[in-house]
Structures are given as C-alpha cells and as structure tokens.
Write a structure and sequence with these properties.
Blueprint lengths: L5 H12 L3 H14 L4 H14 L8 H21 L1 H11 L7 E7 L6 H12 L3 E9 L1 H11 L3 E5 L6 H14 L5 E5 L1 H6 L10 E2 L3 H11 L1
Parallel strand pairs: 1-2, 1-3, 3-4, 4-5
Helix pairs in contact: 1-2, 1-3, 2-4, 3-6, 5-6, 6-10
Amino acid sequence: MADDFSVHLETVARHLDHFAKDEAMAYCIGLLEEGALTVPLLYENVLAPALNKIIVPRPQEDRLIWREHAMTAIVRSIIECARPYVMREKERAGAKGSAGRVLLVCPEEEYHELGIRMGEDFFTIAGFETFFVGANTPQENIVSAVETLRPDIVDIGVSNFLNLVQLKKIVAQLRQLIDARVLIAVSGGALVRSGKTAGDFNADILVNSFADILALGEARR
C-alpha cells in the first residue's frame, strides 16, 4: 500500500486543472482496481486534497466559479464510479451485523456536499446502512426524513464557514423535533479548519475521518 500520496495527488490535480475527466477517472479507478489504494485512502489522501487545491480568486469568482464546478463534477463522477469498490471493501471488512442507520445531510444554504458524500461511503464500509440526502436540506425536510427512515444517527455536513453560525441553532431545533435516541453528528471541512468540536454545537459526536467512523461502528456493535 502506498505511503507517499504526492504523486497520485499531483496527477489527479493536474487532470482536474485541465478538465480531463476521462483521464482522472481512469487513473483513480485504476488505483482501486490494482489495489494500490483503498477507497478511504483515495478519498482522504487524493480526492479531498485535490478539491482543496481548487482556488478561484475572489475578485474573479463571478466569472470563473464555473471552473470549480467543472472540477468538482469530475470528482463526483469518480466517487460514484467507486461504488463497486466500496461494496467490495465492506465485504472484506466482514463487520458482523449492522452498526445502525445513518442519514447524511447538509443544512439549508450549504451547497458543498462532496465531503459528506465521501462520508457516506465510509459509513457503508464500516457496516452502516446509509441514506444520503445531501446539499441544501431545510430543517423540516431533515425532520421528515428522520420520521420516515428512522436513522440511529443524523450526520450534518458543513463546508462553508458561514453556515457554522447557524449550526448550533439547527442542532438545538432538531433535538426538540426528533427522537432523543437519535445521535446528532457533525462533520465537514469548516469544522476541521476552525478546530471546532461537537460540543461547540451541542452535537453528540464529530466524525471527520474514516477512522472516526470505524471507531463509531465498533462502539455501536
């Protein structure tokens, strides 16, 4: 298993910078097929850092934001095509019994969902049953999904710093509206970069890595 991910990262970042979708997909899926990387290693050490390398200068954001969207769409395609390898790694992990159900959402006005989409695959490998709703989910929709799907955990993903201001309020309101036995998890790049903890938002747990999710799965079995 490769320990130095720099070559893979630079290769994928270069393909993204040239909007070379087929080349980026072939390279990443090839790594999984050859067993050079696992899905978590690919996501955490290649795809996520490659996304973080995408920079659109703020003065030119209105004119050039399409670049970020185009590169992000390529990464999304890679993630969706990795699903067979996710299921293969879940079987290889051989987790006994289900660790529970997880609903994965981003709050209203949060449009960056790829981080929590990667989290869905991490939860799947760790033996959870997952339900991905994704970006810009109003509170009433989160409550409706909880009532219908009856998850054990609701994972709220936040990448935009501006949405951290509302996160504590969202968690507090959800606690009043959903079953008290449902764990509320928080995750996302905004929490990583700000150094915030679950306790800062009155949430139950912070999950920002595959290791976090594996540990949660083991604790729930």
